[in-house]
């Protein structure tokens, strides 16, 4: 009887330790975005700390193809998210998008460049993972241009 009591206590402690360990990972999100700094892109976002909010980063891969021109975009940025209910967050971020164009039309040519972006928006991100949504105003700027009313919408999965 004593042995059964000790064994059940040890098993209970082990199960409890495993359930709390899974909640200590940093939140990660994979999402598809239309608009935003990658035009049409797939992105990865992660918090630096082991929480659902705070500082983090994003990296993505996007592109566009028309006739003789192919455009590759790689958005990279830092962001900060904050919220009180563990589900709805305000996001602010900034970064740069690397652009590579392989234009085959006469008179034009391939080029590589970059532009900056700022992100101000809303994200719905469940605490325990699940479907993710974001919408943001994303002003973009570069050499000789500034588009203050550019925006993006993203859908994905948080884990």
SSE topology:
Layout: H1 2-21, E1 28-35, E2 40-47, E3 54-66, E4 69-82, E5 88-103, E6 111-124, E7 130-137, E8 140-142, E9 145-147, E10 151-158
Antiparallel strand pairs: 1-2, 1-10, 2-3, 3-4, 4-5, 5-6, 6-7, 6-8, 7-10, 8-9
Organism: Segetibacter aerophilus
Keywords: Signal
Signal peptide: 1-17
Give an account of the 3D structure.
Residues 1-17 form the signal peptide. The protein is built from one helix and ten strands, in the order αββββββββββ. With 159 residues, it is mostly beta strands. The protein has a single domain, classed as Porin (Beta Barrel). The protein has an eight-stranded antiparallel barrel. Mean pLDDT is 86; it is low at 1-22.
How far apart are the termini?
A: 42 Å
Alpha carbon gyration radius = 21 Å
Sheet having the most strands? 8 strands, antiparallel, barrel
Shape: elongated
Structural class: mainly beta
Mean pLDDT: 86
Provide the spatial order of strands within the biggest beta sheet: 1-2-3-4-5-6-7-10
Q: Briefly note the CATH topology name.
A: Porin
Helical content band: 10-25%
Question: Total number of β-strand segments?
Answer: 10
SSE string, helices as H and strands as E: HEEEEEEEEEE
The CATH class assignment is Mainly Beta
Number of domain units: 1
- What CATH architecture would you give? Beta Barrel
Proportion of beta-strand residues? over 45%
Number of helical stretches of at least 4 residues: 1
């Amino acid at each position: 009887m004593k042995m059964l009591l000790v064994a059940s206590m040890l098993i209970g402690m082990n199960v409890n330790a495993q359930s709390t360990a899974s909640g200590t990972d940093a939140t990660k999100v994979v999402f598809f975005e239309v608009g935003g700094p990658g035009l049409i892109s797939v992105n990865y976002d992660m918090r630096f700390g082991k929480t659902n909010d705070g500082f983090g980063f994003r990296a993505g891969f996007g592109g566009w193809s028309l006739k003789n021109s192919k455009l590759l975009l790689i958005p990279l940025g830092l962001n900060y998210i904050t919220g009180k209910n563990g589900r709805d967050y305000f996001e602010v971020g900034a970064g740069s998008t690397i652009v590579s164009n392989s234009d085959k039309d006469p008179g034009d040519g391939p080029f590589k460049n970059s532009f900056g972006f700022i992100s101000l928006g809303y994200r719905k991100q469940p605490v325990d993972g699940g479907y993710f949504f974001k919408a943001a105003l994303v002003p973009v700027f570069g050499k000789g241009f500034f588009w203050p009313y550019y925006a993006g919408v993203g859908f994905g999965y948080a884990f």
